[in-house]
């Protein structure tokens, strides 16, 4: 059983780190705030959740419960924060980059 938990933990860690890398690349490469928020909120939530799941699989029960609660907290707050940032950007007049080029600004 310990071997199965170990391999599940390693796979979860590798996949989580991959999603965190994709979120970082999306943050650096995408053109406007809305695209960046979309990439980072999705990938960052999944990546952080998988990394914390990997830690929970390797820890004792009391710590694992706290890590699962932290995963739930991230699943709720990360998309909410992205929505608030997108709404603030839209309210201040930042237009989405749909159908226009960066030279139109």
Structure description:
The protein is built from three helices and no strands. The model has no long low-confidence stretch (mean pLDDT 92). With 105 residues, the protein is mainly alpha-helical. The protein starts with a helix and ends in a 14-residue tail after the last helix. Helices cover 81% and strands 0% of the residues.
- The secondary-structure class comes to mainly alpha
Q: Number of helix segments?
A: 3
Instruction: Summarize the biggest pleated sheet.
Output: none
On the 0 to 100 scale, the average pLDDT is 92
How large, in whole angstroms, is the Cα Rg?
Answer: 17 Å
Shape: elongated
Beta-strand share of residues? under 5%
List the uncertain runs.
none
Could you state the order of secondary-structure elements as H and E? HHH
Kindly state the number of beta strands. Answer: 0
Number of domains: 1
Helix content: over 70%
Alpha-carbon distance between the two ends: 59 Å
